[in-house]
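In this section we turn from sequence analysis to structure. A common task in structural bioinformatics is to predict how a protein folds when a small molecule is present, because the ligand can shape the pocket around it. The inputs are simple: the amino acid sequence and a SMILES string for the ligand, here nicotinamide-adenine-dinucleotide. Study the lines below before reading on.
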Amino acid sequence: MCRSLVTGGAGFIGGYVVEHLLKEGREVTVLDNLSTGRLSNLDAVRDHPRLTIRIGSITDPILVSEVMQGQDEVFHLAAAVGVKLVADDPVRTIETNIFPTESLLRLAVQGGQRFFLASTSEVYGKSDQDRFEEEDDLQFGPTSKPRWAYGCSKAIDEFLALAYHRKFGLPVVIGRFFNVVGPRQVGNYGMVIPRFVEAALRGESLTVYDDGMQVRCFAHVSEIVKCVVGLMRCDNLDHRLFNIGSDSSVTIRDLAKRVIDLVNPELDINYVPYKEAYGHDFEDVRKRVPDVTRLQKTLGFKPEMPLEQILKATIAWKKEAMAQ
Ligand SMILES: NC(=O)c1ccc[n+]([C@@H]2O[C@H](COP(=O)([O-])OP(=O)(O)OC[C@H]3O[C@@H](n4cnc5c(N)ncnc54)[C@H](O)[C@@H]3O)[C@@H](O)[C@H]2O)c1
């Protein structure tokens, strides 16, 4: 039987990856320290006979080499995540996102595992291009601004993964996720849709940072997982690096309006300067839209669930969760 390790498997995306792999008939091990993840993300499969959950950190080398043994593939999703958490604690970001990735890659070479690395659209930094392509230049802000530590740390992970591929032939796939959303995502770490939905359901006004004209693309997590697993099952890939996300864009102001229309048209929007939310050295990116040609050519599909459907699913889930 095929065995898969999912680091960060109790996280928002990780939980869906685990469910998908179990459905495929795999034996799955989760390694998660529950720092931003929650065991409730695995509620649907918690007692599954082919699931093992190990609570611990990817920064623990002994534990990591133990859980890597006997695996056929690794989905490396564990990371310090979220713009706010990262801006607040850049040391944790760098420690969690860089060194453990290198030890996992090294062990994967020894064990012959296929390797998926979860990267992020944040690696494009503050580039102002209309659409980001995988081979575009990356453009980070200064190191004095901790906000860029997340994107830089993931860019180093990508360099490492590609180097291990070139040097040792390790079969790696890197997915640069754009905004991934859906039921079970929580708003604690600055994720915008859960934050809007939670506020709207509580009857509060929605807080939009700056002028709300930032442009983003939102994809449903189930479609993202289909892409991730699909890429890991492809033999003879022409590329190792893929943008993974929706290419249908919306401004944050329109997003807030859509949530308000769906939950309670009486609510209003409260515009707040970035410096009040993240401190005065915060910089944001105005527009972030992926070019997903490479993904679509490789898999024959791309994420395309309409935003309306995603919002309805997220609102329905949150309503139920708040009622419990
Ligand atoms: N959600 C998005 O829109 C998005 C966008 C770009 C990239 N990503 C990437 O996707 C991956 C998953 O993100 P997510 O949205 O599911 O966030 P998440 O916070 O729900 O998942 C991350 C998981 O990693 C775990 N973790 C963190 N540090 C750990 C450690 N030291 N040891 C073991 N486990 C640890 C957390 O407990 C959590 O379960 C991350 O690598 C993230 O950078 C997500």
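The pocket of nicotinamide-adenine-dinucleotide is lined by residues 8, 10-14, 31-37, 57-59, 77-81, 96, 118, 120, 177, 179-180 (CB under 6 Å). As an exercise, try to locate the residues that line the nicotinamide-adenine-dinucleotide site and compare them with your own expectations.
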